[in-house]
Amino acid sequence: MTVTIQPLSALCICLCLGACKPATEVKKPETSPAPSTAPAATPPAPVTFSHDPALDAFGYYFADADVRSGPLKLVSLNIGQPSDFTDWEAGKRPSTYAPIFLAFDDVTSPTAENELGQTYHTVSVRVLPTAYRVDDREISFHGVDPRLGQVDFTGVFDLKALAAAKAAGPGPARTVLRGELRIGARQFRDIGFQYFGGD
């Protein structure tokens, strides 16, 4: 006997056979993850650069303590002219200079002699700022270096001592700035800096 399958019956058979096939993964449309019930982390402080244009703190500030991280020794905090701050904050940012930066010497590097007969290490590191604030109340500096990691300094000027050092010119070193320095996980407290106006 010949059995003729009507179109409707054929459709039913196909659907039944399809239902017996192994299931395949059905991708759901991508959705945003459900909001976390955990409290949100505190957002990082905004990256800002600010200075008091009335404060002329130009000069080199040499550390009076032996501050080291591995072979890198802190030498100085360097502050530029008010116009250097203005240019930096306007977006004119050279890759090797900033209106405020920290200088370190690699004490394992070879030494040489400069034109004044002074010996110096030939390898040094400048930590440029990722944020700063410089005014008559506080210096706040934040920077990052591949060898040192995160570098943060917070200090306060002795404005009378700074004015006296500027007025006196060359002579005995005067401590005009004190603060706290963090290099990576290490913290150095009560570091004094002595003012030198340059040659």
* Number of distinct helices: 3
β-strand amount: 35-45%
The global form is: globular
Computed over alpha carbons, the radius of gyration is 32 Å
Q: What would the average pLDDT be, to the nearest integer?
A: 81
What class do helices, strands and sheet pairing give?
A: alpha+beta
Order of helices and strands: HEEEEHEEEEEEEHEE
- Estimated helix fraction: 10-25%
Secondary structure tally: strands: 13
User: Are there runs of 5+ residues with pLDDT below 50, and where?
Assistant: 1-46
Describe the structure in brief:
The protein has 199 residues and is α+β, with helices and mostly antiparallel strands. The protein has three helices and 13 strands, in the order H-E-E-E-E-H-E-E-E-E-E-E-E-H-E-E.
Detailed description of the structure:
This protein is of the alpha+beta class. The chain has one domain (49-196). The protein is 16% helix and 39% strand. The protein contains 3 helices and 13 strands, in the order αββββαβββββββαββ. It has helices at 7-19, 82-89, 159-168; strands at residues 49-51, 59-63, 68-69, 72-79, 100-106, 111-113, 119-121, 124-127, 129-134, 139-145, 149-157, 175-183, 186-196. The strands form 2 sheets. Strands 1, 2, 3, 4, 5, 8, 9, 10, 11, 12 and 13 form an 11-stranded mixed sheet that branches. Strands 6-7 form a two-stranded antiparallel sheet. A hairpin with a 3-residue loop joins β10 and β11. It starts with 6 loop residues before the first helix and ends with a strand.
